[in-house]
TrEMBL record:
Belongs to the plant self-incompatibility (S1) protein family. Residues 1-26 form the signal peptide. It is found in: Secreted. Keywords: Secreted, Self-incompatibility, Signal. This is S-protein homolog. It comes from Parasponia andersonii (Sponia andersonii). InterPro entries: Self-incomp_S1 (IPR010264). Its main location: secreted. GO terms for biological process: rejection of self pollen. GO terms for cellular component: extracellular region.
Length: 124
């Protein structure tokens, strides 16, 4: 391969710029060894799996007090999640996909005592 005058005239400035940049980088690296500052931010991993658009999460925690169990039963028109008994500080959670109209409705009932029950709408 033969190098022409045109190629040589383009190559020389390129090589000079590269040499200049490498010397500046080398000088900067040598001079910065005594004044290097770094900050590391470590975020704890998110224990939840990534959520899809339209996905909702419900978490219920028993904070009634020691030795008091919380009984609950959650369901929607399509899904019945059954009865759950949560001891103090225990949690129950579930994820579900909202329908395209955004009208998915879950009910959770919390029976309390011998004759009273309560129900609440968890998401509309």
């Amino acid at each position: 391969m033969m190098i022409t005058n045109r190629t040589l005239s383009l190559l020389i400035p390129f090589v000079l710029v590269m040499l200049l940049l490498s010397s500046i980088i080398a000088e900067t690296c040598e001079g910065s060894s005594t004044s290097t500052y770094s900050t590391t931010i470590v975020l704890p991993p998110d224990p939840r799996p990534p959520r899809r658009k339209g996905t909702s999460s419900v978490k219920i925690t028993n904070s009634l007090g020691p030795n008091i169990d919380l009984t609950l039963h959650c369901k929607s028109k399509d899904d019945d999640l059954g009865d759950h008994v949560l001891p103090y500080n225990a949690s129950f959670g579930f994820d579900f996909n909202r329908n395209i109209w955004g009208t998915t409705l879950f009910f959770c009932g919390f029976p309390w005592g011998a004759s009273s029950t309560g129900s609440m709408s968890t998401l509309r």
